[in-house]
Amino acid sequence: MQLGLIGLGKMGANMAERLRLGxxxxxxxxxxTAAATRSRLSF
Length: 43
Hints:
Layout: E1 2-6, H1 10-21, E2 25-29, H2 34-40
Parallel strand pairs: 1-2
């Protein structure tokens, strides 16, 4: 299943990670600088 999430703060990033580990394809958006976004997308 493909899912989209808006808001990858602390809670959203954890939700995205759990969905991804469950085999889902996750696309997310995060409103921050490029450096802050890269640090949150370590999975």
